[in-house]
Specification:
Layout lengths: L6 H6 L3 H83 L9
């Protein structure tokens, strides 16, 4: 015949309340896992957006440096031209100052 389970064996088997609690804990753990996976994906998306923004800023910095270098070179050319024009003007004024007032003007 069948033997009745001993008291130790009977206490090892979970009762209906314990099974219900374990099921609720499993569901809660599953819900937590799903929430963490969603949050992880949100964090990854945010990281990708930040990386894209950082790359855009790096490109803007690079463009700004190139523009500043170009402007600097252009300003240097303008400075040379202004210096040359000033020298020509000073030479012209000096020649005019050396001419006698009654000398015929060229032209």
């Amino acid at each position: 015949g069948r033997r009745e389970p001993s008291a130790a064996q009977a206490s090892a088997q979970p009762g209906p309340a314990a099974v219900a609690v374990a099921g609720q804990e499993r569901e809660a753990a599953q819900a937590t896992l799903e929430r963490l996976e969603r949050e992880s994906e949100t964090t990854r998306q945010m990281a990708r957006r930040l990386e894209a923004q950082a790359e855009q800023w790096r490109n803007e910095v690079r463009s700004t440096r190139e523009l500043r270098r170009g402007v600097g070179e252009h300003l240097e050319q303008l400075r040379h031209r202004a210096t040359a024009a000033q020298s020509q003007l000073e030479a012209l004024l000096e020649r005019q100052a050396q001419q006698p007032p009654d000398a015929p003007k060229p032209g």
